[in-house]
Amino acid sequence: MFAVIKTGGKQYRVAAEDVITVATLAGEPGDTVTFDQVLVVSNDGNTQFGAPLVEGATVTGTVVEHTRGEKVIAFKKRRRQNSRRKRGHRQDYTVVRITGLPGQSEKPKKAAAKKTTQETADVAPAATAE
Question: Does the predicted TM-score (pTM) go above 0.85?
Answer without folding.
Answer: no
